[in-house]
Amino acid sequence: MISAVITAAGKNQRMIKDLKSRNMDINHKLLMDLNGKPVIIHTIENILKSGVDECTVVLGHFSSEIFEVLKKFNSKHIKIIENPDYNVELSQTLLNGVLNVKPGLCLFVAADQPTVTCETLEKIIVKALEYENPENIVSILARKKYGYLKSAEGLGMPFVCHTKLLLKYLRDYKDNLNPILRKMIVDGVVFYGTPASKDIELLNINQYEDYLYVKDHL
């Protein structure tokens, strides 16, 4: 049983600021069009093709706008939840997701990562499944070095780990993700980095230039 959690609860601040500076209409980055589909739908489709059994999308800011798009995406494998408090750090969005999936290995992906292919996601999942102790590994998309890692520098989503492992940290840390990953390494959690198949997989859509690049190269 492999679950997935997609975080889609952010404030969209960098994109809003960038669009305002360009005198453009304000739009949420997750709802921008990529080849006829919103960004978030591309991300969801890649995740569902990677072999997960269930997928939970966690909303927060702009939840009503995003929900309107998601409800048109007809899939029995998708569950949509909202953060009780919208003004929380990423760790609390992840916690809300973990509490709403079945215990076990879980894939965590940011909704603004439509460039990460289902093949790469599957490789990350398989590494966690095959490890001798799945409850003590974080299998993650490598940013610099790959293979077994001694540092969490620069790392973030997507990654796979056991819900039991992540819960140990999320309950006590109200922070962004990377400080939690660094703490896990200090505590002896095994990290394995899978290399990206293409550099574009390492690009999150934060600003308008990111969106244009992804639109041209996806």
Helix amount: 25-40%
Number of strands: 10
Low-confidence stretches: none
End-to-end separation: 30 Å
- 3D shape: globular
Helix tally equals: 8
Condensed summary:
With 218 residues, the protein is of the alpha/beta class. 36% of the residues lie in helices and 20% in strands.
List the helices and strands and how they pair.
Layout: E1 3-8, H1 13-21, E2 33-34, E3 37-38, H2 39-49, E4 54-59, H3 63-70, E5 78-82, H4 90-98, E6 105-110, H5 118-130, E7 137-141, E8 147-149, E9 159-162, H6 163-170, H7 177-186, E10 190-194, H8 208-217
Parallel strand pairs: 1-4, 1-6, 4-5, 7-10
Antiparallel strand pairs: 2-3, 6-9, 7-9, 8-10
Helix pairs in contact: 2-5, 4-6
Question: Which short descriptors sum up this protein?
Answer:
8-stranded mixed sheet; 8 helices; Spore Coat Polysaccharide Biosynthesis Protein SpsA, Chain A; 10 strands
